[in-house]
Design brief:
Length: 192
């Protein structure tokens, strides 16, 4: 049914049709496995800071709306299930230099970040792998599985909240809000 609305899966071998459908070995230097809020925010940050970097990026995801939106924006996107090893092989993950797993375990179905890191590390022993941990206890397991760096979003959230507390204590909360409002006004996220 997805093919009927114009979304092609990895079994479609004509990537040249629109330049975004994917196929064997087509991943670029940097691969984002799965696309949800953190990846949407990351993409917006890249667009703002270094849009040229977008040409080095591949996103693999199975959400048809995300696929369509990213493809319409000219990004290299491959439709597929990131928990399926065949998808990763056919997408060319084995050739990527940096692989980002930004989806928390709570949103993954039939997989977790540790399992994904192990699969990716097997397919690509030299890539740098960045994974996401929901729990602090998961960090060591992700490193043991082969991750090169593990993000823990609650740590970065806590750092941001602390700067808000400092701003409020200094009577600068309005300034802090103005900074955030300016950042929000510039963003064109895929998943708002």
């Amino acid at each position: 049914p997805l093919k009927r609305i114009g979304i092609r899966d990895l079994d479609h071998g004509h990537a040249h049709d629109a330049g975004h459908e994917g196929g064997h070995g087509e991943a670029r230097r940097v691969v984002i496995l799965g696309f949800f809020r953190a990846a949407s925010a990351l993409l917006s940050e890249i667009e703002r800071r270094n849009p040229v970097f977008l040409d080095q990026l591949t996103v693999i995801d199975f959400n048809p709306n995300v696929f369509r939106t990213l493809a319409d924006r000219g990004l290299h996107v491959i439709y597929g299930d990131i928990s399926n090893v065949d998808t990763l092989v056919h997408a060319g993950v084995g050739k990527a230099e940096l692989i980002i797993l930004s989806i928390p375990d709570a949103l993954l179905k039939g997989a977790n970040n540790e399992k994904l890191v192990r699969h990716v590390r097997t397919l690509n022993p030299t890539a740098k792998i960045v994974a996401t941990a929901d729990l602090l206890a998961d960090v060591a397991d992700l490193y043991a599985a082969g991750a090169d760096y593990v993000t823990v979003t609650r740590i970065s959230d806590a750092q941001e909240l602390y700067t808000v507390i400092e701003a409020a204590a200094a009577g600068l909360l309005d300034d802090k809000r103005a900074e955030m409002d300016a950042q929000l006004a510039e963003r064109k996220e895929v998943l708002p």
